[in-house]
Every structure is written in C-alpha cells, then in structure tokens.
Amino acid sequence: MVNVATGLAHPLDEARAKELFKALHAAGEPLTYSAVEALALANKWPSGHAQTLAELAERIGNGGRVVIKHRRDWGEPTIARLKAEIASGNA
C-alpha cells in the first residue's frame, strides 16, 4: 500500500504506517527498530526509507504519541483480517 520508492513522504502513506503500527502496538505486537528495518529491507525498501519506517515503529512501540492527519481507520480491521487469515492457515 506504500510506494517504497518514496517511503513515508506522501501524507497518506505516513498515515497508513502510523495507523498500522498503532494497531499492532495495541494488539501487543512488539515493534522493534531492527525487526521493522529488516522487514522493510527484505521488501525492497531503500535503506533511508527503511530506517525512517523503523524509527516510526520503534517510537510507537515504545508508547510514543503520533498525530495521524489523514485517518483512514484501517489499522485495526487490517490486524483483525491478518489474525483471521493466520488462524485459518491462509496467511
């Protein structure tokens, strides 16, 4: 859902990342810099953008507050869908 070439430069991409990380944090998922950076790099994110994503994840994972300017309210439904897919073995 994010243009990896531009990372979180677009406000909607930044908002999606914030919503997803907030939902993951609320669901008790650990958000560590190293894990998020490694996942981003494995998915072909440029290094600088992967670092920015990892910094955001770590801030939210440590309980830091963020402002979501373009809320889409898709973070929690996305987590619920992924958990359902994992439980059914379709992930």
Account of the protein in words:
60% of the residues lie in helices and 0% in strands. It contains 4 helices and no strands. It has helices at 11-26, 33-42, 47-61, 75-88. α1 crosses α3 and α2 (33-42) runs antiparallel to α3. It starts with 10 loop residues before the first helix and ends with a helix. The model has no long low-confidence stretch (mean pLDDT 92).
List keywords for this structure.
mainly alpha, 91 residues
| Molecular shape | globular
> Over the alpha carbons, how many angstroms does the gyration radius reach?
13 Å
Strand percentage, roughly? under 5%
User: Secondary-structure element order, as H and E?
Assistant: HHHH
**Secondary-structure class:** mainly alpha
N-end to C-end Cα span: 17 Å
Percent helix range:
55-70%
Low-confidence stretches: none
List the total number of helices. 4
Average residue-wise pLDDT: 92
**Annotation, overall tally of beta strands:** 0
Largest β-sheet summary:
none
